[in-house]
Structure prediction request, 705 residues.
Amino acid sequence: MEYLVIALLYVGAVLVSSVLDQFLRGVSLPLVQMAVGVAIYFFADLPIDVTINSELFLVMFIAPLLFDESRNISNRILWDNRNTVLSLAIALVVVSVLVVGFVLHWLVPSISLAAAFALGAALGPTDAVAVASLGKTVKLGSRQKASLLGEALLNDASGIVSFQFAIAAAVTGSFSLADASWTFVVEFVGGIILGLFLGAIAFFIMQRMRRAGVESATVHVCFELFLPFFVYLVATRFHVSGILAVVAAGLLISYIPQRMTVRSRSFSTFSTRLNIASESVWHLFSFVLNGVIFVNLGIVLSSTLAPALQENSADLFWIFSLVLILTAVIVGVRFLWIIWGDPLSDNPETGKRMKLGGPAIRNALVTTLCGPKGAVSLSIASTIPFTVASGAVFPQRDLLLFLVCGVIVVTLLLANFVVPLIAPKSETDDDDELDPEYEIEMIQNVISGLKRRQTVENKQATGRVMRMYHRRLTAARRRSVSGRQLRFLRQEVLLHQRDFIKEAIAHDEVDKRLGTTYLKRVDRMLKLLTRKKTLLTSNRQTRPLAGSTSTMRKIQDQVTSTNETRKKLEFKIDVERVAVDYLELASHEPDDARVQAALALLGEHKALLSALRAQLRALDNAQGIIASVPETAGQHSIVRTDTGSLHLEPTTDPDDLPGLADVQAEGLRLELDEIQEMYESGKISQSLAREMREEIYLLQMGLSD
Prediction:
């Protein structure tokens, strides 16, 4: 029962911290979660000790989180920056261990050199979760972001291995550099090789499951969730790095489908459903795990620091000073390493070394402070034994834990409050919307790709699809108008529609219940416009391919309804006519920005009006044998059988061109390629890339259906 209470407490803490994060804009989410954990420690009577075993912590939390991060990181950028990543993840960790160890032993001679090296190793890894959260609050370059995440994925292994040898030397009093080096190479290389091997097997199993007819998204997502735990446990069984094995498996799992599935000449409804389900489940899973980690970190830090603070020892000032000194040493070594020997100091445009001046120093300082310590460091330090080989108490164990906790807190505070002062702030609104310039480039590349794939057989179909993309291109070129202008104009349109509905109700031109229903709907839409980010404020235009299946289902439902449905459709059409008339007047005003906004909205409302009229025609024609459905409904017809039931059949309209669906599918595949290219080049954020991919997946599902 106690464990259930603790689990519910942690979940509640994650929810509370998420709500608080919406109001504390200047504080990163990990710090908010840590603060909630501190509050839990002091104000909640915990029934059990919440300190998690280090090995259990790594397999339960760190393994799946690193697996998820490795699935989402750009493989190309990671490879392009491999020298930087290896330099930060291996060489810098080793240098930091040596420098921190010698400095600590010099300052506190009672701490053995081996124990000091162990503390340096524990403070070697950076926190991947904290690094990822920083990318949401400050604007980091794509190379910086990829290098920092790559470092965080790999330096856990180097830190853990270094710590193990240092502790072994501290406990036994003996150390062999040759043995340590060989073991490090075996664990490092062996972990990568084993991870790639297990990742390939996992991908093969998933493919065989699909070929055997197991096309359940639930089964496949559960398999993905189970995989990092399995890989880590197998790696530890073979005495290689479980962390590196998990990272390697995650990179391979993301790379193979991208090259073999996304870019193949075929897609399936199941693939798109699986992609959507996988992204959604992993997003929720990683969010909860991240929250639990930092809430627990706040609790554990409090349990470690509080006793020392309550002692009121005369050495307390010296201990806190020691924390600041060690933090300065770690930050200083990292800064010097980056500024003098790291290619991140190169100019991203020219590729040449930047002059040692303001921009270079600022970039190096940002990269330095964006490597805070976190839960992994605390987990490693908690494994310091209580006794040595002789049975004596491990010297200064409590002090070492206190120093680790103090450095974690200070580095997190520096990353949260200092980095935003020296790095440009992330424009979150812009990051969540596709820049029209990039959209134009993407559409042009898709059109060029379709031209190259045009043949005599699919010429007409290709021409139709290209005309669709040309319409999107024209709309994208008009979308230089601000979201604010669109929002104001949408409000005006809704207000005119509301006035029309009120007048219709007052003059009994519409059923009062029906009018009241749509009046409430308009009011809800007006309220949505006051929110910072809604579908109504998006600049993104509705795609012609979207909703073909849903449209048909709506039409099918409408056909089977009564005369009441006709009245609803007629009233909807009248309401949309009000919007179209108003926007046509606005499109002739002298304000150029307002004209562009009106033209963008006019296309949306005309498309909706056309769809409503098509539904009305389908409703009228449903009394016959065949009811034609317009092109926007998917090139199908509604057919009434002898039994009176309705079903869809492909239309025999001459516009139903051979190979049209194949060309549309090819266009979508080209868009996926362009999205990946924009993400890898740093033009769009990870969240926007995921959103755009999900949109394509939905379009593929509709096209397949």
Remarks:
- The first strand starts at residue 626 and ends at 628.
- The chain has 27 helices and three strands.
- The chain has two domains: 53-425, 436-704.
